[in-house]
Amino acid sequence: MRRRPEKVANLLLRAEGWVTAGSIADSLGVTPRSVRSYVSQLNARSTPVTAVESGPLGYRADRAVLAGLRGEAEGETPQDRVHSLVRELLGASSGIDIHRTAARLHVSEATIESDLVRVRDLIAGTELKLRRSGPRVMLVGDELAQRRLVSKLAHEEMDDGFADMASLRRTIGLESIDPKSFSPFKQELTTRLGEQGFYVNELAVSDVILHVAIAADRVAQGRALTGTHVDPSAQQRQVAELLDDLTLKHFGTRVGLGDLHHLASLILTRAVTPKGEALEVALDPHIESVVREAVRHAAEEYLVDIFHDDFLRRLSLHVQNLVHRAREQAWSRNPLTRSLKAAYPMVFEVAVSIASQVGDHLRLSLGDDEIAYIAMHVGGRLERNRRSDAVLTATIVCPGYYELHELLRSRIDRSLGSSVEVTAVETEMSPDWSAITTDLVLTTIDPPVPDERTVLLPPFLTDSDTERIAAAAARRRRSLRLARLRAELEHYFHPSAFIRPLPAAKEAGVIRTLGAPLVELGVIDEDYIDRAIAREEMSSTAFTDALAVPHALKMTAGRTVLSVGVAESSLRWGDSRVQFVVLVAFSEEDREAFQTIFEQLVEVFNERDSVQRLLRRGTNFTDFLDELTAVIDG
């Protein structure tokens, strides 16, 4: 487990403004008293300056100071020792001696034995094994499997955002690589790949460069790859030649053909997409067919407009690369997974649906990072259709004097035309205010009863005036979204489907607990609960730091009901901790409401103040529903 003070640091760095001790404690599954201790440790490390400010509102980070602590070692922890042990095992072809290792690390032999248990857990499910002969322990497995283990250590270091090069080098032991060489290597690789006719995925290229550095370091230790599982193609040879040049130039190592072809395969399937006709990749007809059917199903199930030829081709090419990565067991990480999940839950859900069908038909097991890349394809497609939904209508009220109203309209069109469309102009001094039905009213005269739609403006707009209009438009959009949510929620809660306190259990147990009242109501059957658990196993439904929304992928409930559980102490849910769990049982007839409820419920529970209010006051079903409505109304 990562050091708790660093987890606190990461939470504070991600937050905007103050964060309460209770909120941090809930996220970590500890007490507020422990949080105070972790903050004290962080401030002790930052002396004489203060990394974390304390106050009546909680804690707030000095971002520059706190970010600077991330690269510093805090002392040996169990995770540090395990990583150190793994590095020794990876570097010792004849194994390590437990007695000598314990003496060198100044710990007992029993501690080393305990750490070896954790090493076994770390390599479980891989092609690596620990072989024991008396006090000697050896790591057994081929070179490619050992490199994947090095990569896994690096990814553990990066999981919570601590991706500075000093920490990575310490964790995975890249002793032969100068940390200053990474940036120029990346810049030249990206530039030259672009010149050769590739689009470069900047999100994935850093991860690929880490693999290149690991390869260069292992080759420097005399541990080169002798071959790969993929026969080199013309493109692979092209990229291999480029890597041969750059690894020697920047890392000072010449790697062999086995490594070059393996690394070229990683780049071609993870970090680049051909953009010229000469580099066009042929699609596997079976993969294309599977993707087409998965997208068709998701488009119909979630009522989203994504079934387009250009989207299908791009996604099919991505899945084809994904199949190659699976063959190499070289999964691609996505640093935006957490933010995508929290900010675009519906897009992520569509991606889960596509990934589920693709995985079933192609026999792939896809994690959140791979699903997030599919979500990026889905989001990019939907963004093209989004403008008409995002534009608000507006009426300008500007009593006529020469062309003032025309100047006002022209300025608004230029500054806000992508988000606000002026559909009417009133030039009377006393317009019929009650007849104005647009989303916004932009007026140069005082309305009789100002409301949230109204923005009072001077006849000549300044930059600050356009900012006020943009802010009012954002508030209005949120108000309209939440109004839809409020109208939907009133129909879908049931008093018998509210459980507080929610018993502590693993995800499957909680889902069964929340599903039981819905089975009693005749809304769902046990099969629905099983499918909700299967959906949860595929990708965690903890979309915020407070809320999980388990559900089945298919909307087969007899009618739509939400079963709500509130935990007094936070529950572990996937890699997160939550206090609210809402089991969603949707019927096919309500599929249009799914997007509204799903996205806006996540939005409400993404606000810490709202979460704390619901925890404090929502002690029973009636109070919870009243407080949720009040929170939505703002």
From TrEMBL:
Quote the SUPFAM superfamilies the UniProt record gives.
Phoshotransferase/anion transport protein (SSF55804), PTS-regulatory domain, PRD (SSF63520)
Key word Magnesium present in the record? no
Gene3D superfamilies from the UniProt entry:
Mannitol-specific EII, Chain A, PRD domain, Winged helix-like DNA-binding domain superfamily/Winged helix DNA-binding domain
Q: Hydrolase: present as a keyword of the record?
A: no
Superkingdom to which the source organism belongs: Bacteria
| Ranges for domain PRD | 282-388
Q: Name one Pfam family in it.
A: PRD
Q: Name one GO biological process term.
A: regulation of DNA-templated transcription
Which ranges carry the PTS EIIA type-2 domain?
A: 491-631
Annotated keywords: Repeat
Residue ranges of coiled coil: none
The record, for PANTHER family, names: CRYPTIC BETA-GLUCOSIDE BGL OPERON ANTITERMINATOR, TRANSCRIPTIONAL REGULATOR MANR
- The name this protein carries in UniProt is PRD domain-containing protein
